[in-house]
Amino acid sequence: MTGDMYVVSGSDPAQAGQSDLGLMKLVAEGDAHAQRVLAHRLAGRVQRIAQRLLSNAADAEDAAQLSLMEILRSAGGYRDESSIERWSDRIAVRTSLRYARDQRRRPWAFASRVDVLEVADAGSAHAADRTSEETPRALMDYLAELPPARREALVLKHGLGYTTEEIAELTDKPVGTVKDRLVAARKQVRKLIQRELRLGRKGDRGDV
Fold this sequence. Notes:
By secondary structure, this protein is mainly α. It has two domains: 1-107, RNA polymerase sigma factor, region 2, helix turn helix motif (Rna Polymerase Sigma Factor, Chain: A); 110-208, Winged helix-like DNA-binding domain superfamily/Winged helix DNA-binding domain (Arc Repressor Mutant, subunit A), CATH 1.10.10.10. 65% of the residues lie in helices and 0% in strands. It contains ten helices and no strands. The protein has helices at 13-16, 20-28, 32-53, 57-73, 84-103, 116-120, 139-143, 148-159, 164-171, 175-207. Helix 4 packs across helix 5 (84-103), helix 8 packs across helix 10 and helix 9 packs across helix 10. The longest helix has 33 residues, at 175-207. It starts with 12 loop residues before the first helix and ends with a helix. The model is unreliable at 1-17 and 127-133 (pLDDT under 50).
């Protein structure tokens, strides 16, 4: 194989082998060579995403493998509206989070790198008044309580560094919808923190 070219058995490479859409069509049709090409192209990227979202190396490896399988199975849904890489990122994020939830573990390694209040108070006028010591739990615990769409938006934004516009492209949603999800997710995390702080203070007074 030379560069990014790939030979398509039973097909005209000039028609089917020159575009991402052509590759994905062949993958969806079960072409084994096209599937190998796609898996090779995305393996490193998917592995990096899984490693950022899961703290355990073995779990990350399993999640990456599951993500690649899901990408191959979903190839027929690719519409060439974004690159294969961006399209696959969303599948990798969703599959990794689902794997972590199914394992019932504390998976989000990125939560140790991103302060929970940085997420909860992003864009808030009160951010400067908060400190990480005020946080009762780690970000991963709060993420687990969010609806899937809100959790996905926060992970893509704060865990993987996508812009709001890029998230809209990845999720096939209007930019306004993504902004609403991010705002709602941050408010929900903030409310959870505030509620637990109030309960903690009440408990402290009761122990005195």
